[in-house]
Amino acid sequence: MPLIEEQIHETFANNAESLEGRLLFAVPKKGRLLQAALNLLEGADIQFRRESRLDIALVKNLPIALVFLPAADIPTFVGEGRVSLGITGRDTVAEHAASVVAAKRERAESGQSTPTDEEDLIGCEEVMELGFGSCKLQVQVPEKGQYAKPSDLIGKNIGTSFVHLAADYFAGLEKEAAESNGEKKLKTNIIELSGSVEAACALGVADGIVDLVESGETMKAAGLKPIDTVVSSIAVLVKSKKPSNPQLVNLIASRIRGVITAQQYVLCQYNIRREKLADAAKITPGKRAPTINALEEEGWLAVSSMVEKKKIATVMDELAEAGAADILVLNITNTRY
């Protein structure tokens, strides 16, 4: 993989604008996470224009440069501190972490190096879940095949693009089987595939696969069925352990957190008689507490409270039964808390 500095130099070779002093923020350049990530950036008021064929875009209103990279590569760039922030899937973060551990283990076993304090600064830190991109990294086998449980695949051929997670998963199964049966531990063969993993079984390349599944329709069409889940994934915001501008990282995280909260909640407003407030407040406790103001009409109160969007219809029904009147629901575009 080329170094990020080389990519930056190539991209901006004929551009007069400088990246000096800008925080680098990695964003998926294509695939299932791209559009949702762009919507999130727009909600956080991160303003930029991406020129065609360019994988770096300068943000207009903040000292940030967006770097568009394959989602699977983002944990590496963030983990090595070459970019400070990134949006990617938890599955790719887990794969990167497993690869770092494997590399350290190989170096230690070969006697090439010993652990250093600098190694503690390598890796990603998850900042928050982003609420989109849900999927599962699953073990899949032919629907009409002979394999019914994960342990049936020990010693077989497994196709995957998540070689380190798959290796760790089957190493655990191998150890378990050896301890319970007292037999010699079989070694499962992990075959690295970069695409169309679901075709590996049908083409005779693998006995089973480890691959990402969203709806499961693609796997069904390929004649496969799931027998276990290795990792449950969702899009996450990750940061380097040594970001170039920690204060700006915190600002961006705060903005994104506000956008996500606004997507999940609505503002519910209603009027209620004072003696019925306690019952109504139990229905709408808010994130911290409801906001309560007295009305001009004696004995009546106005209440405002954040309510989970998915629960609002039930909440409105319960408020009406509790004696609330003039119930309104307002969308929230952004928030801080």
From TrEMBL:
Subcellular location per the Swiss-Prot or TrEMBL entry: Cytoplasm
Record-linked Gene3D superfamilies: 3.30.70.120, Periplasmic binding protein-like II
GO biological-process terms attached to the record: L-histidine biosynthetic process
EC numbers for this chain: 2.4.2.17
Primary location: cytoplasm
Keyword Glycoprotein: no
Cellular component GO terms held in the UniProt record: cytoplasm
Pathway(s): Amino-acid biosynthesis; L-histidine biosynthesis; L-histidine from 5-phospho-alpha-D-ribose 1-diphosphate: step 1/9
GO molecular function term, any single one: ATP phosphoribosyltransferase activity
Reactions the enzyme catalyzes: 1-(5-phospho-beta-D-ribosyl)-ATP + diphosphate = 5-phospho-alpha-D-ribose 1-diphosphate + ATP
Residue ranges of domain ATP phosphoribosyltransferase catalytic in the record: 71-257
InterPro entries on file: ATP-PRT_HisG_long, ATP_PRibTrfase_cat, ATP_PRibTrfase_CS, ATP_PRibTrfase_HisG, HisG_C, N-reg_PII-like_a/b, N-reg_PII/ATP_PRibTrfase_C
Record PROSITE patterns: ATP_P_PHORIBOSYLTR (PS01316)
Domain Histidine biosynthesis HisG C-terminal: start-end pairs: 262-334
Keywords: Amino-acid biosynthesis, ATP-binding, Cytoplasm, Glycosyltransferase, Histidine biosynthesis, Nucleotide-binding, Transferase
A Pfam family annotated for this UniProt entry: HisG_C
Family designation: Belongs to the ATP phosphoribosyltransferase family.
Name this protein carries in UniProt: ATP phosphoribosyltransferase
